[in-house]
Design brief:
The chain is of the alpha+beta class. The chain has 3 domains: about 5-50 and about 250-515 and about 605-649, no CATH class; about 165-240, no CATH class; about 525-585. It is built from 20 helices and 24 strands. The strands form 8 sheets. It has a 5-stranded mixed sheet with strand order 1-21-22-16-19, with helices on both faces. The longest helix is centred in the C-terminal third of the chain and has 29 residues, at about 560-585. The two termini are about 15 Å apart. The relative contact order is 0.13.
């Protein structure tokens, strides 16, 4: 039951959980009406498409040509932001290896890299609230649009090549120190293996300086001079450790519009997300991570330090971009934490979105309820950036069909986005279903989900000078649906899911509600009676064994002794079989880390039943700091909605 203060309390508790978790995302807030009304969440590109169809002059667009089609993300797309998606991550690896020709390799020298930045006008989209804003500063920022466009494009180019590395035997400390000191590459050591990995592409001058060093490549035990590593023939030796590396186009939140219930739908509220576009490559560029940790050293790359735009380095322009984002986030969070109405929350968010030109990507997260009434959740795999965290049933990025993205042409069907870039409104249910198929193998293709709300998440930085890990505000549409399949069936399906690698185990929990102490007491009595029935075979077998001992049948005649021995064998078999059946019932799947499922009793006659539930939930999972904050929000919304639905019956 969502009471007047339910959402406020949920946000307060979820924020505290995120802040104390030591996770990369240390802030979360749920946007939804503070009442029991159902919520429809709708996406719309209409505003962006209308802007793109408006005729601008050649000077307005800062280019001699305009895009031939609006169905691809381009540098001229409206309400959009980021590097365009016509190149995949491996393309940048191949550029660095001269596969497209030495003249195309802009990583080889600072001069070649600076020349490539002239292409930013065609390869990086900057969101301009005013189409005639050429040469002017975005409000509140220190530098011109064109300076940010080039600086952010440069940051994305460095991040793209830093995603690829080659592992070498660690047998030359001076060589490794030279690489680290150069700051042209990112070096990661593995002391257990006695190796280190060079991520990125050194400049030609650094390769020449260290050309004499013989390097042993770990993957094939081949030894070659350092000067020969970054060649065409070694394309397969430069690998990415990120299993989810791709270049897709994502919805970008521009603003939110709300509508109260209307005649004919007097219990349904509407949230319309006005959207533009961004790309996954932009996300990686602006928040480059390795081993799940943000690497601020990227902004110390010599190219970013030494290339100047109007007397300011690319690195400083990027840092100013992050500082302003940090300032705007703190202003938004301060307002959201002041216990304001839903309408004022949306107003504050729209004010932030209008002033922050950043990624603002919209993801999807959801609960899947099985046919036997279990809510599924997972534990993330070790190779993921958020390893060992408990996650909700499905979680991923929503994506837009874009014909320039080559990744989709050679991928699984469930990797193909369901969102079209058109002026027709759409729901996020099909994207949630697509993610459910990819992660769980759940073949239920129904696009109908119940929507809980929209969350924003970030890493709040108290002082950018001491904590440069400034994570943009990103958003998640939260939903829930019921699958026709049981927990056991979905676990079987998951074994062949294309994104099974993202999680190490699947779990489920169920909730039973009790309105009164009498109802709870009766339930306990029924449960204990059922338990006695389940172990009745064991009880009978034990009684038989006791009778045999008491009556001393083993000392009677040979016939009686044989008969008693036979009864003892039967009793033993019954006990063993019953124990095996009980074990299977409590733990169905062998690959579960904890019990297959947990039951939670919600005592509605207690005023603090939500806190009691959360404490019990974290205790049974032994979650500590491993509970993802979106999972926490979705779990509590599932609880509140269950209570509401029960009262509506």
């Amino acid at each position: 039951m969502i009471k007047s203060d339910s959402i406020y309390n949920l946000n307060k508790n979820a924020s505290n959980l995120a802040l104390n978790s030591n996770h990369d995302r240390n802030y979360i807030h749920l946007f939804r009406p503070h009442n029991n009304n159902k919520l429809n969440i709708i996406g719309s590109f209409k505003e962006s498409i209308d802007l793109e169809h408006t005729d601008y002059t050649e000077s307005d667009n800062l280019s001699s040509s305009t895009p031939s089609s609006t169905d691809i993300l381009s540098a001229f797309s409206k309400n959009s932001f980021g590097i365009i998606a016509n190149r995949d991550f491996p393309d940048f690896r191949d550029i660095s290896l001269d596969i497209y020709g030495n003249d195309k390799n802009f990583y080889k020298s600072i001069d070649a890299f600076e020349k490539e930045l002239n292409n930013a006008v065609n390869n990086f989209c900057i969101d301009r609230s005013n189409p005639n804003a050429s040469g002017t500063k975005p409000a509140g920022y220190s530098y011109a649009y064109e300076q940010y466009q080039k600086a952010l494009y440069a940051r994305c180019l460095i991040a793209a090549i830093w995603c690829f590395g080659i592992e070498l035997n660690d047998n030359n400390a001076i060589f490794k120190s030279e690489l680290e000191a150069s700051k042209e590459v990112f070096v990661v050591s593995n002391e257990d293996k006695g190796t280190f990995t060079i991520f990125g592409r050194p400049s030609d001058s650094l390769i020449t300086k260290l050309a004499y060093v013989d390097c042993t490549i770990t993957s094939n035990s081949t030894t070659m001079p350092f000067s020969q590593i970054y060649k065409k023939d070694n394309q397969k030796l430069l690998k990415s450790s990120n299993p989810s590396l791709y270049s897709g186009v994502l919805p970008r939140l521009v603003s939110i519009k709300t509508a109260e219930p209307s005649t004919g739908n007097n219990t349904v509220e509407k949230m319309t997300l006005s959207l533009g576009r961004t790309s996954y490559m932009t996300i990686m560029g602006l928040h480059f991570t390795s081993g799940g940790t943000y690497q601020s050293s990227l902004l110390d790359h010599p190219y970013l330090i030494n290339i100047m735009l109007n007397g300011v380095s690319l690195s400083e322009i990027n840092k100013d971009f992050d500082r302003q984002e940090s300032f705007l986030q703190h202003k938004l969070v301060e307002t959201l934490n002041s216990n304001i109405s839903y309408e004022d929350e949306v107003k504050a968010l729209n004010d932030y979105l209008s002033k922050s030109f950043n990624v603002h990507n919209v993801n999807i997260s959801g609960n899947v309820i099985t046919g036997d009434s279990y809510c599924l959740f997972t534990k993330r795999a070790d190779k993921m950036t958020d390893k060992n965290q408990y996650y909700c049933s499905v979680n991923g990025g929503s994506e837009i069909i874009d014909t320039s993205v080559r990744y989709y042409k050679n991928s699984n069907l469930e990797d193909i986005p369901t969102i079209d870039y058109s002026d027709a409104p759409f729901y996020f249910g099909s994207e949630l279903t697509r993610e459910s198929i990819a992660e769980l193998g759940d073949t239920d293709t129904s696009p109908y989900w119940t929507y809980y709300g929209l969350t924003c998440m970030s890493h709040l930085t108290d002082s950018y000078e001491t904590d440069s890990n400034c994570l943009w505000m990103h958003f998640n549409v939260l939903g829930e649906k019921t699958s026709p399949y049981t927990l056991e069936q979905i676990n079987t399906m998951r074994s062949s899911a294309s994104e099974k690698f993202e999680s190490k185990s699947l779990h489920g929990y169920s909730i039973t509600q009790y309105r009164t102490r009498h109802e709870y007491a009766i339930s306990r009595l029924v449960k204990y009676t059922q338990f006695l029935q389940d172990i009745s075979d064991i009880i009978i077998a034990v009684i038989i064994a006791i009778q045999l001992i008491i009556n001393h049948h083993f000392t009677d005649s040979i016939a009686n002794t044989a008969f008693s021995f036979a009864l003892a064998i039967v009793a033993l078999i019954l006990i063993i079989k019953s124990c095996i059946d009980l074990h299977k019932k409590s733990k169905i799947y062998s690959n579960f880390i904890i019990k297959t499922y947990n039951h939670f009793n919600i005592k509605l006659y207690k005023c603090d039943y939500t806190n009691e539930f959360n404490n019990s939930f974290q205790h049974k999972l032994n979650a500590n700091n491993e509970l993802d904050s979106i999972f926490y929000v979705l779990t509590n919304m599932h609880l509140l909605t269950m209570i509401k639905d029960k009262e509506d019956d």
